[in-house]
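Quick one, tokens below. Sequence please?
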């Protein structure tokens, strides 16, 4: 029984570590794609950026939740999580494309909380669809 708990602990720790590293990498990629610096804006109290970034974090974590539960090896878990992130990023670009009257990044940088909230909801909502699809 001791080895059973030990394996679960090791696997949980490994999953946690891998997902945190992927999350850091994916957030760095998002930092390159957006016109604003996430942490600088959050430090200034920009709630719209905090909402949009929080939605992306929650979305990525949710995708990895599905990926961990549905795939046995770390390599497939990372692969499906990365593919899910690409779809989430695609959703972000579609959101930008579907709002030709304003620029999403500019509105979020200017603390338009309505746009930040919609960005949050889009990221989280899409993560459920993406997660369910990668199972």
């Amino acid at each position: 029984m001791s080895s059973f708990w030990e394996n679960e602990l090791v696997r949980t720790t490994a999953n946690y570590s891998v997902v945190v590293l992927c999350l850091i990498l994916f957030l760095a990629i998002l930092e390159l794609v957006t016109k604003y610096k996430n942490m600088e804006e959050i430090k200034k109290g920009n709630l719209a950026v905090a909402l949009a970034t929080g939605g992306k974090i929650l979305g990525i974590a949710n995708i990895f939740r599905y990926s961990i539960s549905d795939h046995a090896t770390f390599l497939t878990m990372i692969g499906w999580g990365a593919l899910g992130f690409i779809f989430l990023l695609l959703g972000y670009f579609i959101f930008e494309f579907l709002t030709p009257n304003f620029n999403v990044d500019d509105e979020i940088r200017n603390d338009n909380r309505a746009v930040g909230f919609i960005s949050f909801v889009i990221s989280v909502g899409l993560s459920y669809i993406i997660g369910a699809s990668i199972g």
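The radius of gyration is 16 Å. Residues 2-33 form the longest helix (32 residues).
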